[in-house]
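Marked as duplicate of an earlier ticket. Keeping the data here for the record.
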Amino acid sequence: MDEMALIKYAQGGDLDAFNRLVLFYQDQVFNLAYRMLDDEDSAEDAAQNAFIAIYRNLDSYRGGSFRAWVLRIVANTCYDELRRLKRRPTTPLEPETSEEEEMESPRWLADDGPSPEESAERAEMERAIQHCLEGLPDEFRLVAILVDVQGMDYEEVSQTIGKPLGTIKSRLARARLRLRHCLQGLGELLPAAYRLDSEVK
């Protein structure tokens, strides 16, 4: 895909070119929104709103990393949604069993692994990581997701959130430390395969 050509065509009003950009970035956009908001419906709404904003603001893109430019809009969309939710808090409906106990492994976290046991362990680890991500301040969570989940380098993250490299590195270090402490605090709740050596009895 010649990204720059597609961007140029999209800026000229070519919807097919823009749709190809959407197809290329939709997984990254949704993944960032889902990790930030921890709700599939909210993430879908945020992703849709972000793509609308991207289309409307294409003319403001002036070069550099297009991915960073796109994800900055997604991050801002998520921040707007988080602020809205804090003003109007809601109680999430956790999946429950017939005994009204929270399910250990909701079906949407299941993974097509080679065995049910491995799928269950990966689902538990996914829940643990997401739980710990939720406990981070928004600005720490965003940096951790962009670097450790999206695989972006520091420079691209700096462009994405408009902060200097030193701030990115500091926030990431603090986010990783908090995540490590959080995961260690879960102790026995983690599958044995994912525990630190010192934690395995």
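See parent ticket for discussion. Residues 45 and 78 are 10 Å apart (CA to CA).
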